[in-house]
C-alpha cells in the first residue's frame, strides 16, 4: 500500500506488475477496487498558483472516484489540514486539490456500489 501525497489517508495498492521502469518518466499504477489508475510524474502545464485556478475544483479540470463514506473522508481531510469544497449541485461530493493544484472529486456511492447520485 502507498499513500497518495495529496491525501495521505488514502492507501491504495500498488500494482507491481506494471512496467514503469520502461517509461521515460516516473509514475505508479494503483488499484482502486477492480480498476486501476496510472499516475505519471510529468511537468505540470497548468498554473500551480491557486489564485490563477478556479476557487471551486468542480469548475476546473478534475477526475472523480466513488467513495462509500464521504463524511469519514471529509474528517480525514480536515484532520490532515487539506481544504475541500462541497459540490455546488448539492449532491454528496467534495473536491480537493493535490500539491500541484490538480483537482480530485470524491462522490459518495451506496454501500452496494449503487449509482444513485447520477440522478441528482
List keywords for this structure.
disordered N terminus, mainly beta, four-stranded antiparallel sheet, 8% helix, 1 helix, 120 residues
What does this structure look like?
The chain is mainly beta and 120 residues long. It has one helix and eight strands. A four-stranded antiparallel beta sheet has the order 1-2-3-4. Strand 6 and strand 7 form a beta hairpin. The N and C termini lie far apart (34 Å). The N terminus and C terminus are likely disordered.
Q: What is the rounded distance between the termini?
A: 34 Å
Mean pLDDT: 76
The number of helical segments is: 1
Percent of residues in helices: under 10%
Oligomer: single chain
Query: Can you write the helix and strand succession as a string?
Result: EEEEEHEEE
Q: What is the radius of gyration computed over CA atoms, rounded to a whole number of angstroms?
A: 15 Å
Number of strands: 8
